[in-house]
Structure prediction request, 338 residues.
Amino acid sequence: MSYLTEILEPTDKNIEKAGKLLLSGEVVGIPTETVYGLAADATNPNAVSKIFIAKGRPQDNPLIVHIADISDIEKYAHDIPVIAYRLAEKFWPGPLTMVLPKNDIIPLTTSGGLDTVGLRFPSNIIARKIIKSAGRPLAAPSANISGKPSTTSAKHVFDDMNGKIPAIVDGGTCTVGVESTVISFDGDNVIVLRPGYISREDLLTVAENVIIDKGVTSELSPDTVAASPGMKYKHYSPKANIVIVDGEYSDFLNFFEKNYSDGVYAMIFGNETDIFPYPHLTYGETDAQQASELFEKLREADEIGATTVYVRCPSKDGIGLAVYNRLIRAAGFEVITL
Ligand code: TXA
Ligand code: MG
Prediction:
């Protein structure tokens, strides 16, 4: 089925329209503070299966379920550890997803066949209004074609989803820019399955032990069962070949000089643009700026026809770990250390 995809301004009337579409089993592109989501009624397997089709997403990759009230956590999950409530109090609404044992109301189509569900209460006001308007929890993965960079504007969603969904609600550019931090629990330990804006350091203000899953920074061997199924897929990749180059600016410049030819670009930090003498993109100075610009710049690499992009390696601390995690997947784990 092909749709005439409408871009809706977030007026009360349009939010009601989006809510009705969702309740009737349709898929709608929605803004959140992290990235745009491709939303459907999480309790309706038929509606959820349309998300997988629109994205071309493997069916064993579970979807995050978005709620608009902390207390809804108990409708969709059980055996919730005390630490989860404490984290919810501190970081919800916001870019934190907690994986918990799921209740039957969440179908296996939504959880990718798992008996757990990732729950997230977004802070974006438009997202919250749409969830309330639909009156349902909303399953929503990032609104990109599977494998491509995530979408941080309504235009990005339109570029990937035109004709595949009836509507996109335009909430402007996402402020955070990388997806939520996904965590699970092992006793009192918090396990980070996917780093995001809520950093390990942030989580440590509430939890005593925060463990970064090994799939976050390294490639899982094919016979490993991924704690988070999303980690085993190549991801966030533009058409251009992305290579991370880890080293000081002067070494990076030397390296680039030797490897530069037509179609080769550098992706450097924002404050280096005046001194770098070759074709380049920039992606911010601080880790938070890099997070908010990363996907836009990976998409831009394709628009300008880049064949290879050598990327300055971000810091691996704080939000930088989220940026690094996305980049190493975009790069197919290709990192050159100088
Ligand atoms: O910020 C976000 O989280 C965005 C916005 C739209 O909310 N959503 C998002 O969804 O990034 P998605 O589907 O692109 O990524 C969800 C990740 C996947 O890597 C998936 O494997 C993992 O979370 N995940 C979801 N449910 C899980 C579960 N029950 N157990 C383990 N991992 C889970
Ligand atoms: Mg995604």
Residues 32, 34-35, 37, 61-64, 95, 97, 99, 111, 114, 116-118, 120, 140-142, 179-180, 182, 193-194, 228-230 surround threonylcarbamoyladenylate (ligand 1) (CB under 6 Å).
